[in-house]
Design brief:
single chain; mainly alpha; 0% strand; globular
Length: 159
């Protein structure tokens, strides 16, 4: 890979950038697991205890999980409040998550109705399918610095 960088330190710099990217994704995975616990708990409660339809339960679980994921993400993954106010930032997280919700619901529906997959396994498939989509959108559109480049993340600031 020709990066245009010269000198003995260029490989070390590239290695550090790659490590930071992988750490950011791993930290986001921790936030996603926290969100998934909330999502699956709300989903199961609604469909098994309150007899809510699985698609409505999917929306409610996803909405609660988005908030949980945001709260953990601003502590572990992304710098918050640097580009937008926190309220604006949270609104943007929900706005970009809306596309993830559409994918989530379509996958959930297809798994249950078309392929006859158990609703909880279908939920696992739907959540797993939108994981990287949500990470990418949040990193590049909500928490991006000026010009659309990813802003410094929590680990690059020593947090």
């Amino acid at each position: 890979m020709n990066t245009g960088m010269r000198g003995p330190w260029s490989a070390a710099v590239l290695a550090r950038v790659q490590r930071l990217r992988s750490v950011s994704v791993l930290r986001y995975l921790v936030a996603a697991v926290a969100g998934a616990v909330v999502d699956f708990s709300v989903f199961a409660l609604l469909i098994y205890r309150l007899d809510v339809g699985y698609l409505w339960a999917g929306v409610a679980g996803f909405a609660c999980a988005t908030l949980a994921n945001y709260l953990v993400s601003i502590r572990l993954v992304f710098l918050s409040g640097t580009r937008f106010s926190r309220l604006h930032e949270l609104a943007m997280v929900y706005a970009v998550s809306a596309t993830g919700l559409v994918w989530h619901q379509m996958i959930l529906y297809a798994c249950v109705e078309r392929y006859g997959i158990h609703v909880m396994l279908a939920k696992v498939i739907a959540v797993g399918s939108v994981f990287f989509w949500n990470y990418f959108l949040r990193r590049h559109f909500v928490f991006a610095g000026p010009g659309g480049k990813a802003a410094g993340s929590a680990e690059s600031q020593g947090q």
